[in-house]
Amino acid sequence: MKLSALGRIALATGITVLATATLPGTPAAAAPVKRKMLPVLVEFSDASFQFPDKVKASTPDTYFGAKSDSAASYLSELSRGQYKLVPAVPEQFLGPIKLDLSAAGCPHGKINQMTRDELAKRGLVAGEDYDSISIVFPAQKTNCPWAGLATLPGPTTWINLYGTASGIDVVGHELGHNLGFGHQGRVKCTGGNLGACKSGGASHTTIMAGGYRPAGFSAPEMIRAGWLNGGASQKVTKSGVYTLRSLHGKGSGVRALDIALGGDRLVIEYRHAAGNFDAKLEGVHAYRVPKGSYGASSLIDTTTADKTATNNAPPNADAITKLTDKASKLSVAVVSSGGGQAKVKVALNGDSLASIDAAPTKSPSPSPSATPTPSASPSANTATEAESDGSEPVTELGSRELTAADDDSSTTMPLVAGGGAALLAAGLGFLLLKRRRGKHA
Ligand SMILES: [Zn+2]
Question: Where is there biased composition of kind Low complexity (predicted)?
Answer without folding.
Answer: 372-385
